[in-house]
């Protein structure tokens, strides 16, 4: 029995086989993690991921087919370009009604009367 133990210790091919097994397990784990990633480049699904929602460093990643776009928050509330297009009201039954502004496009809305 002692001779069998010495042969395994002296044979370097056995340790190489063990290393190959370890690398195969690591490779399988990496492939599984890539497959479960929502922004998997091999899937044709459209996905939107929001990182750190509501925080100063919020980031939105949108994947449409093979195109990936990233939007980063400036941290300012209400920042951006555009004009007021109307007002939305929530009714008691939960529905929302949108009332468009009467001002022409590009014109500033009239100030509210006090």
Helix content: 25-40%
Strand content: 15-25%
Multimerization status? single chain
Placed side by side, the strands forming the largest sheet appear as 1-2-3
Q: List SSEs in N-to-C order.
A: HHEEEEE
Give the overall pLDDT as a whole number.
Answer: 77
- Count of discrete structural domains: 2
How many helical stretches?
2
- Tell me the major beta sheet: 3 strands, antiparallel
Gap from first CA to last CA: 101 Å
- What's the shape? rod-shaped
Secondary structural class: alpha+beta
Radius of gyration: 30 Å
Low-confidence stretches: none
The number of strands is 5
Transmembrane segments: 12-35
Pfam families: DUF2149 (PF09919)
Keywords: Membrane, Transmembrane, Transmembrane helix
Protein name: DUF2149 domain-containing protein
What does this entry look like structurally?
- This is DUF2149 domain-containing protein.
- It comes from Paremcibacter congregatus.
- With 114 residues, the protein is an alpha+beta fold.
- The chain folds into two domains: 1-36; 40-103, no CATH class.
- The protein has two helices and five strands, in the order H-H-E-E-E-E-E.
- It is rod-shaped and about 90 Å long.
- 1% of the residues are buried.
């Amino acid at each position: 029995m002692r001779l069998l133990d010495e042969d395994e210790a002296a044979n370097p091919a056995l340790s190489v086989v063990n290393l190959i097994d370890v690398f195969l397990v690591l490779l399988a784990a990496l492939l599984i993690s890539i497959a479960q990633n929502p922004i998997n480049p091999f899937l044709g699904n459209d996905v939107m991921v929001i990182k750190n929602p509501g925080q100063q460093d919020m980031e939105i990643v949108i994947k449409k087919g093979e195109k990936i776009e990233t939007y980063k928050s400036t941290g300012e509330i209400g920042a951006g370009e555009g004009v007021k297009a109307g007002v939305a009201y929530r009714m008691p039954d939960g529905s929302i009604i949108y009332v468009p502004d009467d001002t022409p496009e590009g014109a500033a809305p009239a100030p509210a009367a006090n």
